[in-house]
Design brief:
Number of strands of chain B: 0
Structural class of chain B: mainly alpha
Oligomer: heterodimer
Largest interface: A-B, 27 and 22 residues
CATH topology of the largest domain in chain A: Rossmann fold
Order of helices and strands of chain B: HHHHHHHHHHH
CATH superfamily of chain B: MetI-like
Largest sheet of chain A: 6 strands, mixed
Number of helices of chain A: 9
CATH architecture of chain B: Orthogonal Bundle
Distance between the termini of chain B: 34 Å
Strand order of the largest sheet of chain A: 6-7-8-3-9-10
Radius of gyration of chain A: 24 Å
Bound molecules: adenosine-5'-triphosphate, magnesium ion
Largest sheet of chain B: none
CATH class of the largest domain in chain A: Alpha Beta
Helix content of chain B: over 70%
Helix content of chain A: 10-25%
CATH topology of chain B: MetI-like fold
Strand content of chain B: under 5%
CATH class of chain B: Mainly Alpha
Chain lengths: 371, 271
């Protein structure tokens, strides 16, 4: 099924190919599958993000790629080559660890040069690469400091420079920003994106922060309980979630249960006691089928004349926008968000009966059954 | 209940502390004094006169040199053996999970908790059962049993504090097992090993009980001293040797203390 927009931005070559990767811990009856059946193609020079709640298997997947865990089944290909037989130190893949794992007995410069030293590069080449990398992360002045004598944000940069110095084909980043405060985090997000563009290295970035995933990535894979549920550009993931979990995990969303009444180029569905809505056709949909439609609060337009009636139950002012808590005739609740334009007092008050409408492309069809 | 850190200790406590320290250290001072006495048949207080001649006498006694040489060699080799075995054991216990890990950890520590006399008897019967003649190596084996514990204890504590992700980071950056050990593990546990090694050396150097069971005709320094005390001939020579033993064992223990104290800080920042 073609995903509009996704294929256009996909580079042609695959840096990493995951084929039905599974990983279980323990044996026999109490075996636990941290990864169930993960498949994905990660393109060259791509900023690919693994997004999911705690414990969904993100770190386990990275560790399989880095070589610290051996997949129980499936294959991992690096530039079309199976890397199962390569130990971690033979894989042209480097990791930025969540805890940074800087060597405490070395200076900043020695940390950054460690990878090159292990590859037996000549001394002057190591020195110049170290300087280049430190310049890249703006840490030149601190080259001779011990790693215990620099701040958390600086340690993060050193970890990044250290992993980049041997020029890996793929860089794995395991929640590298989670230890930083909000302001530094925003700065580093921009910095990371810049570094990825400048170095042209494929990044596989792990986070459980959906905003971080949306702002930085070329494509996002949303994971839950050891599976990838959906892969797509940030736009697709946000606007056309295919799973209830994906929709729910990334920001506020409304779910509407409906019955399909007509399906041509666009489809019609009836929401019992609410009315007919129009949406774009997605995959196989049959007339009479029960489906779930999802819509983001900001895609709902409110007006006195709009087609579907609703009652305002609460109005919450958020500075840049206002959130309306609505009650539909079928007793379902719905959230709507509208941006505040300057000076306008809200036109309605709690208890008002108004109308809502949604454009056909604002409604996404959720494939799975509600669980 | 709360102790006042700034307050002065009460007089009674001071006297008790001084008494305790005197009780611990006065006998040692006595040994030093008798090393310089002019009376050589019996220990007489106060010494009738002071002389340095026993230093020279000791220097010229070949049996002292022989015993000292043996002790140094035994201590050095048991320590070396303990460093290798203790480090490997500590690495296995703290780095990997395997069936019976806790038991292994307990079994390694057991020899030092066991009275030396038990270890000695056990080793002796084992040697005679296996028909191993008593030699230099049987002493070394006997000493290694407790030297391994000391090294293991030091190393395992440091291993636990050195994070496993450091090793993974090193492997990730292209270092194989040996390079990782040399460039990352060793610098992080180095001071702990040095401290453990020094303690092991000191322990081995003045060990008597296990040695009496595992040595054949050989005489280590502590055994020599024990024998010397029984027959009164140039008694102060024993005291001179005792003084040397105190210095040789005390300095490494002091150094080990400072090394581990310092190392805590370095390794602690590794997280
Ligand atoms: N060595 C292990 N032995 C047993 N279970 C493990 C092991 N490593 C991970 N797991 C389990 O596998 C699951 C996935 O763990 P993983 O570390 O990959 O999660 P994660 O997505 O990185 O979570 P977080 O966001 O909290 O870091 C968890 O339920 C975890 O308990
Ligand atoms: Mg994780």
């Amino acid at each position: 099924m073609p995903e509009p927009g996704a294929e256009a931005t996909r580079p042609s070559k695959n840096a990493i190919e995951l084929r039905n990767v599974g990983k279980s811990f323990g044996a026999g009856a109490n075996a636990f599958f941290a990864l169930k059946d993960v498949s994905a193609n990660i393109g060259e020079n791509e900023f690919f993000t693994l997004l999911g709640p705690s414990g969904c298997g993100k770190t386990t997947l990275l560790r399989c790629i880095a070589g610290f865990e051996e997949p129980t089944r499936g294959e991992i290909l690096l530039y079309d080559q199976d890397i199962a037989s390569l130990p971690p130190y033979r894989r042209p893949v480097n990791t930025v660890f969540q805890s940074y794992a800087l060597f405490p007995h070395m200076t900043v410069g020695e940390n950054v040069g460690f990878g090159l030293q292990m590859l037996n590069r000549p001394r002057d080449e190591i020195a110049s690469t170290v300087n280049e990398m430190l310049r890249l992360v703006q840490m030149e002045e601190l080259r001779d400091r011990r790693t215990s004598e620099i701040s958390g944000g600086q340690q993060q940069r050193v970890a990044l420079a250290r992993a980049l110095a041997p020029k890996p084909k793929v860089l794995l980043l395991d929640e590298p920003l989670s230890a930083l405060d909000l302001k530094l985090r925003k700065e580093m997000q921009v910095e990371l994106k810049r570094l990825q563009t400048e170095t042209g290295i494929t990044f596989i970035f792990v986070t459980h922060d959906q905003e971080e995933a949306l702002t930085m990535s070329d494509r996002v894979a949303v994971m839950n309980k050891g599976d990838i549920l959906q892969i797509g550009s940030p736009r697709e993931i946000y606007n056309q979630p295919k799973h209830r979990f994906v929709a729910d995990f990334i920001g506020d969303i409304n779910f509407l249960d409906a019955i399909v009444t007509e399906c041509g180029v666009t489809c019609q569905a009836e929401i019992v006691d609410v009315g007919m809505v129009e949406f774009l056709r997605e995959g196989e949909i049959a007339v009479g089928q029960h489906i779930t439609l999802a819509i983001r609060p900001e895609r709902i337009t409110l007006s006195a004349q709009a087609r579907h009636p609703c009652r305002i139950e609460n109005i919450v002012y958020h500075g840049t926008d206002t959130i309306y808590h609505l009650r539909l005739p079928n007793d379902d609740r719905m959230l709507a968000r509208s941006q505040n334009s300057e000076g306008h007092a809200p036109a309605w008050q709690t208890g008002d009966d108004i109308g809502w409408a949604a454009a056909p492309d604002a409604l996404a069809v959720i494939a799975d059954n509600p669980s | 209940m709360r102790s006042d850190r700034n307050g002065k200790a009460p007089l009674g406590l001071k006297i008790a502390a001084a008494g305790g320290l005197l009780f611990l250290h006065l006998p040692i001072l006595l040994i030093f004094v008798y090393a310089f006495t002019t009376e050589d048949k019996s220990y007489q207080w106060p010494p009738p006169g002071l002389t340095l001649k026993w230093l020279a006498v000791t220097w010229n006694r070949p049996d002292v040199w022989q015993a000292l040489g043996l002790s140094v060699r035994v201590a050095a080799i048991s320590t070396a053996l303990a460093l290798v075995l203790g480090t490997l054991c500590a690495a296995a216990v703290s780095r990997t999970k395997f069936f019976g890990r806790e038991t292994v950890s307990l079994l390694v520590i057991l020899p030092i908790a066991l009275p030396g006399i038990i270890t000695g008897i056990a080793l002796r019967s084992a040697f005679s059962l296996a028909d191993i003649p008593y030699s230099f190596w049987t002493i070394v084996l006997g000493h290694a049993t407790f030297c391994v514990v000391v090294v293991y204890n030091n190393a395992v504590a440091r291993f636990r504090r050195t994070s496993g992700s450091l090793i993974e980071a090193s492997m990730d950056l292209g270092a194989d097992g040996f390079q990782t050990f040399r460039h990352v593990v060793l610098p992080n546990i180095g001071t702990a090993l040095l401290a453990g090694g020094m303690l092991a050396f000191a322990l081995s150097f003045d060990e008597v009980i296990v040695t009496t069971f595992t040595a054949g005709q050989q005489t280590t320094l502590p055994i020599w001293m024990l024998e010397e005390l029984v027959r009164p001939r140039q008694r102060p020579v024993t005291n001179v040797v005792a003084m040397v033993v105190v210095l040789v064992t005390f300095l490494p223990i002091l150094a080990a203390y400072y090394l581990t104290r310092d190392g805590d800080r370095i390794a602690g920042s590794g997280k």
